[in-house]
Amino acid sequence: MRNAAAPVPLSTSGTTPADVVAVARHGARVELTESARAAMAAARRVVDDLAARPEPVYGVSTGFGALAVRHIDADLRARLQRNIVRSHAAGMGPRVEREVVRALMFLRLRTVASGHTGVRPEVAETMAAVLNAGITPVVHEHGSLGCSGDLAPLAHCALTLLGEGEAEGPDGVLAPAGELLARHGIAPVELREKEGLALLNGTDGMLGMLLLAGADLARILTAADVTAALTLEALLGTDRVLAPELQAVRPHPGQAASADNMLRVLAGSGLTGHHQDEAPRVQDAYSVRCAPQVAGAGRDTLAHAMAVAERELAAAVDNPVVIGDRVESNGNFHGAPLGYVLDFLAIAVADLASIAERRTDRLLDRNRSHGLPPFLAADPGVDSGLMIAQYTQAALVSELKRLAAPASVDSIPSSAMQEDHVSMGWSAARKLRTALDGLTRVVAVELCAATRALELRAPLAERGLLPGPAGRAVLAAARAAGVAGAGEDRFLAPDLAAAEEFVRSGGLVAAAESVTGPLA
């Protein structure tokens, strides 16, 4: 991760995913390089030259969308650019999270700084100043079809540059945008030809949420490998299926990485390999044996999604776009590449949650847990143990399956049939964020069950059969984090909340890595 204290430079040479996360989530400052200023100035000269000609040029001297047939006189063009921002700031519903809005703003600034939009350098400087001041426009949940860019969300951001609408200050308090700009010594911008359109016409919301989701899912995948290993250990399963030579005969890189993580967590365990002691079985169940295959497929899906995201980071998404000494219309604002991978990730998230829930249920079922008490209860019948925690987990998995239904297969024509096929990529991104929260909770429930089950294997310690060092480290860290262990029934929601935070904050992975070293 980039040091958030170091400014993120914006040039014509591209941006990294770590840059986006640093600005969006950690408040890193941004700064425009001289090369970016020079590229913007050169592109602006092209726009100014075209604006002076009598021939209509889309976005410069015409209306927009289905209204592009009207030529706009020079004395109305400032009003045209201001009006597109005001009219397109038509979002509804709950506010979008601060980190998403900051990603949206930063990515639009990145495209502006590429020198392909024709926006003046002073407008870009204002965009950077707003970000650096910690001013966050109010953006609403609904308003983007993921085509012609994330129009309404970006319009709400552009409205703040005009000193209009509402925004949140660095103190988290909502105020009129004009007041916040004045408080930080930022002058509102006066838009000229093409600039209003250029501030709206990008895939920045979809891309920002994809990059944030990628960072989150990478951490959850590692956490899921850890909990899968703990469950295998608690079920006295065999780790032989994780051997590198078995992964090599089916060389998916994600599978190999997950199997290696699990092997390292299980290193030194006295519990693995005893699957034939009490209730003999030749093989572990699929949810245990195939854990690296499922999590590994999720890893490979994430790798593909991040490859798409990095290509988009290298792009200048606008319409029309400045190419050399001309301005050309194009369709690069269509969100299909991002919509598809956002939906792919939601499918992977749902399936990873599904297999984790099946492992949890196996730990709780006395007929399949190989000697553990029903529902991991202290006094079954008097105590219910984790029975209803699994209900909660199952409800989450069911919701994740609904969220896996792809948004990108839908399309609703707009703009009087001029924009007759849209991506719905923004919707795909919004539901993926919800899905990641659900997956975190599902992994947290498995953690509660697996650690409690390991504690209940204490009688085996008399035979020298102990969890491995990594398992013991996770168990101790979880208890220190407020995830209570085996015992009589108690108010369970605080335990689950503590487990969720332990997973979300990275505490689970950190505890395992204190023994294993860095995991993939």
Automatic annotation (TrEMBL):
Its EC number is 4.3.1.3. It is an enzyme of class 4 (lyase). It catalyses: L-histidine = trans-urocanate + NH4(+). It is found in: Cytoplasm. One of its GO terms (molecular function) is histidine ammonia-lyase activity. There is a cross-link at C147-G149 (5-imidazolinone (Ala-Gly)). Contains an active site 4-methylidene-imidazol-5-one (MIO), which is formed autocatalytically by cyclization and dehydration of residues Cys-Ser-Gly. Its main location: cytoplasm. Signal peptide: none annotated. Pathway: Amino-acid degradation; L-histidine degradation into L-glutamate; N-formimidoyl-L-glutamate from L-histidine: step 1/3. InterPro entries: Aromatic_Lyase, Fumarase/histidase_N, HutH, L-Aspartase-like, Phe/His_NH3-lyase_AS. The keyword Cytoplasm applies. It comes from the Bacteria. The modification 2,3-didehydroalanine (Ser) is found at S148. It holds the Pfam family Lyase_aromatic. Keywords: Cytoplasm, Histidine metabolism, Lyase. Belongs to the PAL/histidase family. NCBIfam families: hutH (TIGR01225), PRK09367.1 (NF006871). This is Histidine ammonia-lyase. It comes from Streptomyces millisiae.
